[in-house]
């Protein structure tokens, strides 16, 4: 007789099978973070997901992201927390420097919610971990995208760019802040709210001035240059500057590079090195930092998750965590409700208060971190020194213990597997 190990010994819980005769099919648009996380949990709860990704392969570039709060609980349940720790960027914290590279203030790792967090990983590394976790159970369609959707009583008819047509029980948009699938379902109903900041991310060769510390440099006229270490021997760079929306994100890459060169030509510090690296660089991401405000996250048999539904912007520090938590909640509510309409409503009712909390950025963001004058930069650095001081941390901890106000870690994660097993 074959031996059996309990879930406690194996670290894995038995899957919950949804009470359908056949597995419901779900098409997910987007193979970054929210999509594969959703697919993992849908598979766990008895669904058959398919992921379509318009890129020809996984997008393995990208900058540092972090996972915290309830999202850390989710990745622990998924069994990938250790893999994320192994792929850690090794960043020791953030140093705020002047044009001579002298440190004016620093935030060591783990000492502030605005600095380096416990689980720091490159976005592409996390995408690879999630793909490896799901690829044997989930159908991936790379190099294709949804071009038309017809929501019918018995399912959703989907037309793909490559010409095929298929039917799915549900369709989920998980393809980012400027989701093309979202526009097919919701039109212009969701609003992309610009926050008055443009940011460009790219990768450059590591040099002798780079270390395991991230370095933040403020230049006059509200410009920031930020360099971060990675775990593959290169350096992740970014330029950011305050600006009203001007449509730069829609320009060809060559024109975007020209804008960066013009904007940062006299910024000083490491800017000349980074600008020189732009010409031969093809992994540049340039966009206006924005939030997505959607009055509803579902319509018929279609729904949204992650940045497509409620991007909080990188300024919140919670984009990845919110995508992971949202995917878990959406899958869990689908497991709890035989009627997808009830599931979508429960998903939104449970998650929307948390989303609104995360999207409520502190006063002065992003302007406070992008001072216009040298005096403003000096005041900003003094503020960082205060935040990092032991005295200030003790005072903050005292107030946090007495405060009843919610925090980014306040979301109570439902145990959908336990509830599902108990209901059988």
UniProtKB/TrEMBL annotation:
Chain segments annotated as transmembrane: 20-42
Superkingdom of this protein's organism: Bacteria
InterPro entries linked: FAD-bd (IPR002938), FAD/NAD-bd_sf (IPR036188), FAD_aromatic-hydroxylase (IPR051704)
Keywords per UniProt: Membrane, Transmembrane, Transmembrane helix
Residue intervals of the FAD-binding domain: 25-358
Keyword hit for Transmembrane helix: yes
GO molecular function terms listed in the Swiss-Prot or TrEMBL record: FAD binding
Protein's name in the database: FAD-binding domain-containing protein
Organism listed in the record: Fibrella aestuarina BUZ 2
Lineage: Bacteria, Pseudomonadati, Bacteroidota, Cytophagia, Cytophagales
